[in-house]
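pasting for the record
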Amino acid sequence: MKNRGLFLLAFNLLPVLLLSGVQAAEQLAIAPVQYREVAQTFSADGVVEAARQSTVSAQIAGRVTEILFDVGDSVRKGQVILRIDERAAAQAVAGSQAQVMQAQAAMQNAKSNYERSRQLYAQKFISQAALDKAQADYQGALAQAAASEAGAQQSVLEQSHTAVLAPYAGVVAARLVELGEMVTAGKPLMTGFDPAQMRVIVNVPQDKLAEIGKRPQAMVELPALQRRVQATSVLVQPVADARTHSTQVRVSLPANEAGVYPGMFVRVHFVVGRASKLLIPANAVLRRSEVVAVYVVNDKGETTLRQVRLGETSGQNEIEVLSGLKAGEQVALDPVKAGMVGVKQR
């Protein structure tokens, strides 16, 4: 009697278990396997670089007294990033200003002498030669005063170079000096780049340039970030490398693209035509070691794990199916949830 009761209980619960399995299957998000026309691409590996990158160098000699930014810091345009000892430059400014005062005094004296000489010449007290000499002395004093003024301005300009300014807003990529280090004119101090303007440099074989076309379009794949971005512009350089028989192509990225930095590896997909491909959503693919599969959902809501062979990923987060599926079938968008449904049905 006890066994008969357990059998009746299991028999009564069987429809409930089957119904719960079907309801779980019905809750699965599915997508059709279908042919669709997509862009046919040619892929090439590239490296990200900053469209605006520069190294700031010292313009005067001196000792580094202050370093205000380091690698990774963001800097605004015109902000002081480093200071050089300005005591020598200040002394040079003081000396040049003293020379200006001396030259101006000499110029005033020469001017007064010339005015007196003109009056004396008008009264026939001095010769023409004496007047000419007074005039020449005055003009020489004027020139000396102008030269001294220019030298003073140059000294002030050199003193301003003790404060090294950021030429544009960006990020510090490298610091090439240490605090207290002696630098000379031309010594590299810091390297920076503008993260708002990034591009990709890729070498394309010459035989592929005709396929890319005169108005190339490209999609940039960022493997490290697991996303794709549409290139804003593509520029084919009019020069070929004689060693590799390839041409450099510059692919501009959208402004302020998050997570992108110089030196990053990327893959550029150039559009070379259109083709009809059998596609499924990329998130429907289940990868376990060397197994690549999807869960196929039939009309009854039953799931079946099926191995597939995949091709390239398209720009719409879809992936091409080379074998294992046919058009019209349905695949589960959540393979983990689909696997749990399969366990319940078994």
